[in-house]
Structure formats: structure tokens, C-alpha cells
Design brief:
Its main location: membrane. The chain is of the alpha/beta class. The chain contains nine helices and ten strands. The structure holds adenosine-5'-triphosphate (ATP).
């Protein structure tokens, strides 16, 4: 059974036109699904629906076979324990006044999860490649990449079944982005993940399945390898063409060391 099933979902913000139209896809348990599309295609809106922050106008979302009841507080408490999120900006998503331990243990407190929270925070911090001593420090003492690791530790500390990541590497410089993508890849071995990004390169490197959105509609969905090999939709081809290509060989020395032309 799929962990998440999005069925014919439609959504519009009050007073606005449709932002999502007839969106359907499934996320099998254990999968790592990339949700990709240009700015404004509706990715973040879909994520808000998946988080239960907004409700679809039409269609429905099933989580673990049952409807996501965004309006029911009791249901949402249980849901938040099972579903966590990592957002784009590691600068604003961590409370600057709190030490890392308090930040990472926050979901454990708010969800009233029993156990040794300090020990659980230490385990989460180590799982993201940091050491226990960071727990006593404040967010401003870390780089962007380290802060994103802390945000990921907070997302996994309650041992969720699903992690939603919204542009979670977009604000990072290139080399940090590569390392955090590696970390997400490791984490995705243990949890189901939906990774939202406008960056086809990141999503193609990380996710085993892709859902491509264009102006609120799914234009292509399937195994990443299949879509990369034979993109069917012109929009997907355009997104793929926008991935920056690294030079296959180091650039030729300049000035040339040997004569090429006779
Ligand atoms: N709170 C809101 N009220 C009204 N319209 C909104 C709101 N949030 C988003 N929209 C509109 O909904 C559409 C989809 O936006 P959304 O943020 O979901 O797209 P996106 O694919 O995540 O884009 P980006 O990558 O730029 O975040 C856009 O036309 C946007 O202007």
C-alpha cells in the first residue's frame, strides 16, 4: 500500500484562480519522490496540503490508507509525529534565541514523545554528521550547511515515517549543496521522502521517482531513470536541458602547449 496517495486534488487560494488541478500521484513506502517544476507551478502549495496546513478544494489525500484530516486537532497531532518537514532557509527556520538542543528536541516536547530527549537529540545530531557538542551552541554559530543539518536533525528526531523537504538545498552554495544532498540520500534509506525543488539536477540526483508539475498540473511522473532517458513532455525536456552540464574533460591549457593546426 502507498504511504501517500494524492487523488485528483484541486486547490485555489481565496479569490484566486486554480493553483492545482486534478493532481494525482502515489508515494510508495520507502520511496524517495522528487516533486519538480518551475517557480509558481504549485509545488509549495501541494506541500502545504500534504502537511495539512491547507485542505484541497476537491479530491483527497490519503496517508497510510486513511484520509488526511487536516481539520481535526487530534488526528493532526498523530500526523505530525509521523510526518516532518525541512524548509529552504536554514537561517530563519531555527530560533536564534534557543540552543541547538532545545531546537532539536522541540518536536519531542510538542508531540509529547516519551523518552530521554537529550539522548534522542544527540543521536539525531550524530545521524546528520555533527557531534554532540553542538547541542549547547546557538544557530548563529553555524554555517548555512551546518544549520540545515540541524534542521534535518530536528525533522528526524521523532523518527517520522515521511519527511517533506521544500527547496531544502536551494539556499546553499554548490559544494555544501552536494554534501546536504548526500545526507538526504542517506536519510532517504530510512524514511519515505518527498523532495520539492525547482532544480531538476538536484532532484534527478537524489530521487528514484519524479513528479513533474507545470502550472498546477502533473505533466509527467515515473521512475527518474525512465524520465531522464526519454522525457515525454516538452516541459520535462526543457527542465532537463536547464541542468548545468559539467565539462567532460578539464579545459585545454591556455596558451596551447602544442600546435593543433599545421
Ligand atoms: N498565500 C497565497 N495566496 C494567494 N496565492 C498564492 C499564495 N501562495 C502561492 N500563491 C500562488 O499560487 C501559485 C503557486 O505557488 P507555489 O508557491 O505553490 O509555487 P511553487 O512551485 O512552490 O513556486 P516557488 O518554487 O517559487 O516556491 C502561484 O501563482 C502563487 O502566486
Amino acid at each position: 500500500m502507498s504511504l501517500v496517495s494524492v487523488e485528483n486534488v484541486g486547490f485555489a487560494y481565496p479569490g484566486g484562480g486554480p493553483v492545482l488541478e486534478d493532481v494525482s500521484f502515489t508515494v510508495p513506502r520507502g520511496a524517495n519522490v522528487g516533486l519538480v517544476g518551475e517557480s509558481g507551478s504549485g509545488k509549495s502549495t501541494l506541500l502545504r496540503l500534504l502537511l495539512g496546513l491547507d485542505r484541497p478544494d476537491s479530491g483527497r489525500i490519503l496517508f497510510d490508507g486513511a484520509p488526511l484530516e487536516a481539520g481535526r486537532a487530534r488526528y493532526m497531532r498523530g500526523y505530525r509525529r509521523r510526518v516532518q518537514a525541512v524548509f529552504q532557509d536554514p537561517y530563519s527556520s531555527l530560533n536564534p534565541a534557543h540552543r541547538v538542543e532545545r531546537i532539536v528536541t522541540e518536536p519531542l516536547r510538542s508531540l509529547k514523545i516519551p523518552g530521554d530527549h537529550r539522548q534522542m537529540a544527540r543521536a539525531a545530531i550524530e545521524a546528520v554528521g555533527l557531534t554532540g557538542d553542538v547541542l549547547t551552541r546557538f544557530p548563529h554559530q553555524f554555517s548555512g550547511g551546518q544549520r540545515q543539518r540541524i534542521a534535518i536533525a530536528r525533522a528526524i528526531v521523532s523518527r517520522p515515517e515521511l519527511v517533506l523537504a521544500d527547496e531544502a538545498v536551494s539556499a546553499l552554495d554548490l559544494s555544501t549543496r552536494v554534501r546536504i544532498v548526500d545526507l538526504f540520500r542517506e536519510i532517504s534509506q530510512q524514511v519515505t521522502m518527498i523532495f520539492v525543488s525547482h532544480d531538476m539536477g538536484v532532484v534527478a540526483a537524489l530521487c528514484d521517482r519524479l513528479v513533474v508539475l507545470d502550472r498546477g498540473r502533473i505533466v509527467e511522473a515515473g521512475a527518474t531513470a525512465d524520465i531522464l532517458r526519454a522525457p515525454r513532455h516538452p516541459y520535462t525536456r526543457a527542465l532537463l536541458a536547464s541542468i548545468p552540464r559539467m565539462p567532460a574533460a578539464p579545459p585545454a591549457p591556455w596558451p596551447p602547449t602544442e600546435r593543433i593546426l599545421p
